[in-house]
Each structure stands twice: as structure tokens, then as C-alpha cells.
Specification:
Blueprint lengths: L1 E9 L8 E11 L5 E9 L4 E12 L2 E9 L1 H11 L4 E11 L2 E8 L5 E7 L2 H5 L7 E4 L8 H10 L2 H11 L1
Antiparallel strand pairs: 1-5, 1-8, 1-9, 2-3, 2-6, 3-4, 4-5, 6-7, 7-8
């Protein structure tokens, strides 16, 4: 499935009055390319679902995504094989109208916030008018890549992580 999206900084605080749902995501990446990960999603009622995802970058904002549901046992086994510290984030969904949804990801370890908007096609993506709480685009900024967050969690010491996130701002 094609994934057409843009990623942005958030201006100010998460607009909590606009949230339509939320859940927690724990995901771990392998060190191989393309982007391969497993994730556990826990909804507000505590129900868990598990996924294995592979993403290939086709061009800026457009990726091929292959995702399948897996069992908890499969997740645990892959998680054990990858043997990495997971990235944990709270995701908030906000309806933007015209069938568009903003996914606001608040990364627990780093306190960073990223807004993602997925689009049905490139024309809609290119004509998107952001609400005033969505800031500058960060699609091509590696410092905001979740894969990079994962590498930092797993490869840098506490002081190095802190310096990286200070420098990022």
C-alpha cells in the first residue's frame, strides 16, 4: 500500500480539545534497510494489537508500506531477536476534515512531538493547508526520523542522547 504523508513540527501544546482518540505505541526497529519494525499498540481500554511493518522510500513523502497483523507471541519473538530498546510514543488522532487525520506522536523518552498527516494522493498532499497549530515540514530532516530516535536510544549514552536532543532544537 502506498503511504503518502507529510511530517511537521507542532506549534505550542497538543490541542487536547480536538483529540478524537489516543493510544500508546511501542516499536522496535531492525538495523536493516528497508525500514523494518514490529510494534505493539495499546488502546485506551488496554486492548493490545501487534504488527510487523516494512517500508520502502519511493520519494519524499511517498513510501511503500507492507504491514501485517501478528500474534503477541510472534511480536515477543521478533522483539527478542532484534534485542533493542523500543521507541515509545503516545499517539493522538485529530480530525482535520476532508477525511484527513493528524497523528500527533509524543515520544516519551525524548519529549519530542511530531505531527503526521496521511493523504489519499499526492495532489491532496501538495494542496494541503495546515491548521495554525501545525508548524514547519520535517519530512526530509533525519533528526526527526523515528528510526534515528531508535538508533539514538540504542547507541548513545545518556549524556550523548541529551546533547543530541538539545542540538536538535
Amino acid at each position: 500500500m502506498l503511504e503518502i504523508e507529510k511530517r511537521y513540527k507542532l506549534i505550542g501544546d497538543i490541542p487536547k480539545d480536538k483529540i478524537k482518540s489516543q493510544y500508546r505505541i511501542e516499536q522496535v526497529y531492525s538495523n536493516i534497510s528497508p525500514d523494518v519494525r514490529v510494534r505493539k499498540i495499546t488502546d485506551i481500554d488496554g486492548k493490545e494489537s501487534y504488527f510487523h511493518t516494512v517500508k520502502y522510500i519511493l520519494k519524499s513523502g511517498v513510501r511503500e508500506e507492507i504491514e501485517q497483523s501478528i500474534t503477541e507471541e510472534q511480536y515477543d519473538r521478533i522483539f527478542e531477536i532484534i534485542n533493542k530498546i523500543p521507541v515509545i510514543k503516545d499517539r493522538y488522532l485529530i480530525n482535520l476534515g476532508n477525511s484527513l487525520v493528524a497523528e500527533i506522536d509524543h515520544f516519551i523518552d525524548t519529549n519530542k512531538i511530531i505531527v503526521e498527516v496521511e493523504f489519499p494522493d499526492e495532489t491532496t498532499m501538495n494542496n494541503f493547508i495546515k491548521p495554525d497549530w501545525i508548524g514547519s515540514e520535517i519530512n526530509n530532516k533525519q533528526s526527526y526520523s523515528v528510526f534515528v530516535f531508535s538508533k539514538i536510544n540504542n547507541e548513545l549514552s545518556g549524556i550523548q542522547k541529551l546533547q543530541y536532543y538539545i542540538d536538535m532544537n
